[in-house]
Amino acid sequence: DKNGQPYGIGDTKFPCPLSERVYRQWLEEPALRMARSGIVDGLHIDCEHYGDLGEAGVCYCDDCFGRFLEQKRIQVKEAVPKTERHRWLARRGLVDDYQRAFTERRTEMFRRIAERVRRVKPDFIFSAYASDSYTGWGRATPLTIGLHSPEAPVIILDSVAYYGDRLQWWDSAYGYYHSLGFLYVLGSWNRVFWGGAPRVSIEPCQWMYQTALNTDGYWLWFQRKLTPGAWQAFETADRRLRAVERKVGDFLLRGEECDGLVSIEGKRDLPPEPVSRSYRLGNEYLVHITNISVAHPVRVRVRFPHLPAGSRWTVTDPVAEVVYRHSAGQTVWDNLRLQAGVVVSLEARGELFLKLSPH
User: Fold this and answer.
1) Predicted TM-score of the model (pTM)
2) Is residue 331 a contact partner of residue 325, using CB atoms and an 8 Å limit?
3) How many CB atoms lie within 10 A of CB 315?
4) How far is CA 54 from CA 60, 130, 270, 320, in A?
5) Does residue 185 sit in helix, strand or coil?
6) Phi-psi region for residue 124, left (φ > 0), alpha (ψ -120 to 50) or beta?
7) Which residue, of 79, 152, 235, 250, has the greatest Cβ tally within 10 A?
8) Are 342 and 315 a contacting pair, CB within 8 Å?
9) Distance of alpha carbon 32 from its chain centroid, rounded?
10) 7-27 residue pLDDT tens
11) Which pairing describes strands 183-189 and 12-13: parallel, antiparallel, or unpaired?
12) CB 266 within 8 A of CB 272
């Protein structure tokens, strides 16, 4: 470590985080056996620290420090003692450069491992927990960045919703991980919904349905035997998801998310305000609006301020199969009418879809 002492606890000492031999034994070889088996699709890596045991942090061992000096073409007259290496870097303003180079080497090491596994199975998937999911926000690590591939994206499992007051998919790291190309799955545990946390104000099937619809899925950690009520919740959520995907699945799965398409106006005295997500597929748009309040229905005006001048559109709810008419009773809306907005109502924790199709 930066004080020149080995990482570890008691008699347990950690190897250098850049010792590829260790990761080939404990990560690559098991993954290769799975890939060759023909029956395993991927490997989940549990990055939690149990009893403070995990990987070592930034390493200043002979190999790590020596390679950094070679990379920077820095020559030293005398060897820098382990206990002085961090201070030596700090005096020269090189601490950030050192940590950046260390991170890049770690990323490349995991990238090499993933490439060797995918020579056997090109679509082999790796997944990992969000690195600090208990605080509610994760961050990408050399492990996840190195194991990621656009053809086989890393799946991030985030346990931020383990607890009854933190079930919000709309306040999660979804956007951050999607910007990296990862898939993001929000999780909870079955005790929250079935007797362990009576303060929860949303039914499990509703949480599973909305979480899967607004992230890349959901997952539950099981701490007790599944009851008939739990199986019923899974089945109900699955039926609702399948029904929605039949109507708007192309937008949700293949559409391009577009920010700034709509603005939502309504009563401000009953927080929280509805949230929305917009998609474009071809020359059509889909807006998904959710009332995240569990206590109050809302009535809001959905404005479309940036549609091309002179454009004409039809507005439908493709799930409910409803066609919207404006005040003149017509089903064709010009951009000015859509700029003025469409008034809609949502029940507590309710949602609706608006699809715009050019006329």
Assistant:
1) 0.86
2) yes
3) 23
4) 17, 15, 45, 50
5) strand
6) beta
7) 152
8) yes
9) 26
10) 988 888 889 999 999 999 999
11) unpaired
12) no
